[in-house]
Each structure stands twice: as C-alpha cells, then as structure tokens.
Design brief:
This protein is of the alpha+beta class. It has three domains: 101 residues, Rossmann fold, CATH 3.40.50.20; 61 residues, ATP-grasp fold, A domain (Dna Ligase, domain 1); 192 residues, ATP-grasp fold, B domain (D-amino Acid Aminotransferase, Chain A, domain 1, 2-Layer Sandwich), CATH 3.30.470.20. The chain contains 15 helices and 17 strands. The strands form four sheets. The protein has a five-stranded antiparallel β-sheet. Strand 1, helix 1 and strand 2 form a beta-alpha-beta unit. Helix 1 packs across helix 12, helix 4 packs antiparallel against helix 5 and helix 5 packs across helix 6. The longest helix is centred in the N-terminal third of the chain and has 15 residues. The radius of gyration is 21 Å and the shape is globular. The N and C termini lie far apart (56 Å).
Length: 388
C-alpha cells in the first residue's frame, strides 16, 4: 500500500502513526514544507520517500508531489494528515487521485459548525440554539431569543481559537466593531455544562474499534480565555447516552477508517446531553497517549492494522482512568513537583514542561496520571492543582 502522509512531522503524534504504518509494510510517503534535513531521524527512518513543497496550501504543488509518487510507487491508496488544519487539503488530493476516503463535498459537514448542527438534528440529537450572523443587528435579535451570554466562534475554525464569550450588549457591539476580516461566525446560546467526548477509531465498515470518552473539569475555551489550569480524564465507563449519540453521529456522518473526536455538553442543571462538535481526527495534545495508558494498548497500531488489514487483534479494554493535569506558571500551587512525585509518583505515567505556544491551552507543566478508581484519580488532581 502507498500512504501519502501530509505533514508527517506535525503534530508529534503523526510520527507514531507513520512508524506503525511502516511496521505493517506500508510505503509512507511524506509531503511537507519542512526541509528533509530538519526532520527527526526516527521519522526519516520510517518514511519510504519525502517530497518537500514550498507551501502546503498550494494544491498544485501537492498534486505534483502525488504525481511523482504515483509514477515511482504506483497507485496512491490513502491520503491523510490526521490534522484538522489540513483535512480539506487531504480531501482535495483524494478527489484528484481517486483515493479512498471523504472528498471535499462530503467533508464540509465535518468542518463547518453550522452544517454539523444540521447533521446533529438529523441524527435526532439536541443542540444549543445558534446560527451564522454577520452583523450587530442580527446578533442583537438572536440575543433577544436566547439571552446573554452567547458564544461566538468561527464557523470554520480549529479548536478554541477565535472563540468569544459575550456577556453584554457593549461586548457584542465591540465584537462587530473590531472584527476586521470576513470570517463567518456562528453564535450560540451559552450552555452551562461539562464537556464530555466520544472518541476513538472507526473501521472501514463504520464500526468503532476503539471507543473512549473524556470528561473535562473546565472547557478549553474557558481555560484559554482565563489562562487557567486544566484537567480532563478518560472515563473507564462511557455514559450510555454519550455512547448512543456517538454511534448515531458515526452513522450520520458516514465516517470510515479514521480517528474521530465528538464533543458534547452535559448540562449542569439537569444532566441533559447536547451535541457540540464533530471532528474527523483524533483529539489533540496527549490524548492518544492517555488512551494507551488507560488500556495498556497501542492505538497507533490499531489504526495501522485497520489501514493495512481492515481489522485488528489489539486489545483496547479500558483498565484505568487516565488524566491530563496542566499547571500554569501564573498560579502559585501548594505542592512542589517533589511532593507530587513522592505521594503520587506510582500513578504518574509521564510529566513534562511544554513550550509557550502550547501552554495556554494545555498547561506550562503537565502531569499524565492513571488510576483504577475515580476517587484515587481526583485525589491526585486536587492535590496537584491545590492553590496557595
């Protein structure tokens, strides 16, 4: 098989996918705008070939690269980046070269939030009220229906980037006065609730082979906007409603042979589940490592098996809760790193300092921990994030 991997060096998890594919005899053909000499040695070792382009946004250059690979290795079987930013680029190349997977017209439902909302409703899942608005008066009329606060975010956006919580008419006016580009924004009623996800890997027939669920102590938008610390954990026991809704979404969006990441709100007042977003890629950060720790498994190998053979024998039983705890350098914490390791070192699976570009969303210093019981996990979370 010939697997064209767009941007195989970023994010870092892509390297692990490339290794797993190579181990199954697949030709991994990389395309990126980074000089080959700057790639990490262990990534170079698993790439069958590499084509440097001047700009990954230039589909003509990507087409030439894929034409070269086709001439040299034969028909291209897969084109993936496993990166939300490049999903539509992947789809465009698939369409050019008639490759398995979603094409641009199909993928737009997984990219554009207003179209996602329509699909959720089609699947019979409740959503937050919202619509795309391009001027203050229409937004004011929307507020008259749902009340403040409201949340505004790019209709086509990545993560929590460019997301605002607007709490007054003055803030709403300022938003439109300051908005300098033509980015389309969708505005939604603010939901007071906890973010819960349904994530995993789906096979070629649309069945989830690995199913996981993360529960957030605070939403990424709130953590980014307030520059607060963050924690979230993979749940050993998936909420049956989340499981049902997640499977409905897989069918409605017709997802096959790929990672997926669906976000829901669980409302604080009555525990109602509302669909928030669908992402046709794995969750970001260290979540896939957390899956490995939670199941004592190899999620990269599972994905590679599905690509190579259409099935896998790798076990993925949820044995542990696995948690990401991100501390911020702008907070004073009660307990030192040494104290944390002395008390909870047996639960720590990894810990590291993150670069500033990642710190606002993930924490300046991150601990990954796991435990068989939720109360053990929460004891560690509370201890690590205990402020002076």
């Amino acid at each position: 098989m010939n697997f064209v991997f767009i941007s195989p060096h970023f994010p870092a998890t892509c390297k692990n996918i490339c290794k797993a594919l190579k181990n199954r005899g697949i030709n991994v053909l990389g395309i990126a705008d980074t000089p080959y000499a700057m790639l990490e040695p262990d990534l170079k070792a698993v790439l069958t070939d590499y084509y440097e382009v001047s700009d990954l946004h230039n589909t003509d250059e990507l087409a030439r690269a894929c034409g070269f690979f086709t001439y040299k290795y034969g028909k291209i079987d897969r084109v993936e980046s496993n990166n939300e930013y490049w999903l539509m680029t992947d789809a465009a190349i698939r369409e050019m070269f008639n490759v398995f997977g979603k094409k641009p017209d199909e993928l737009r439902y997984c990219i554009q939030k207003s179209l996602m909302k329509a699909k959720f409703i089609e699947a019979g899942i409740t959503v937050a009220r919202g619509r795309v608005l391009d001027n203050y008066q229409d937004a004011k009329n929307f507020v008259a229906e749902v009340g403040f606060p409201i949340v505004g975010k790019p209709d086509r956006g990545v993560g929590a980037s460019g997301t605002y919580k607007l709490e007054s008419d003055a803030e709403l006016q300022a938003f439109f006065a300051d908005k300098a580009d033509d980015t389309e924004y969708i505005f939604e009623e603010f939901i007071s609730g906890q973010i819960v996800t349904y994530d995993g890997i789906v096979d070629r027939n649309g069945e989830p082979v690995l199913a996981m669920s993360s529960v957030y102590g605070e939403g990424v938008m709130e953590s980014v906007n307030s520059d607060n610390h963050i924690y979230f954990f993979t749940d050993r026991h998936i909420d049956p409603v989340i499981e049902e809704y997640g499977r409905r979404i897989l069918k409605t969006f017709d997802l096959k042979e790929r990672f997926f990441h669906f976000e829901f709100f669980r409302t604080h007042n009555d525990g109602k589940i509302l669909a928030l977003e669908v992402n046709c890629r794995a969750p970001g950060g260290f979540t896939m490592d957390m899956w490995n720790y939670a199941c004592d498994t190899d999620v990269y190998g599972i994905y590679a098996d599905l690509v190579a053979y259409g099935k896998t024998d790798i076990s993925c039983e949820r044995k542990y809760y696995s948690c990401h705890i991100g501390r911020k350098s702008n907070r004073n914490y009660q307990h030192s790193h040494g104290q944390i390791m002395n008390r909870f070192g047996h639960m720590v699976t990894n810990h590291m300092e993150l670069p500033a570009v990642l710190a606002r969303a993930m924490g300046n210093y991150v601990y990954l921990i796991r435990a068989t019981e939720k109360n053990e996990l929460m004891d560690a979370v509370n201890y690590i994030l205990w402020l002076d």
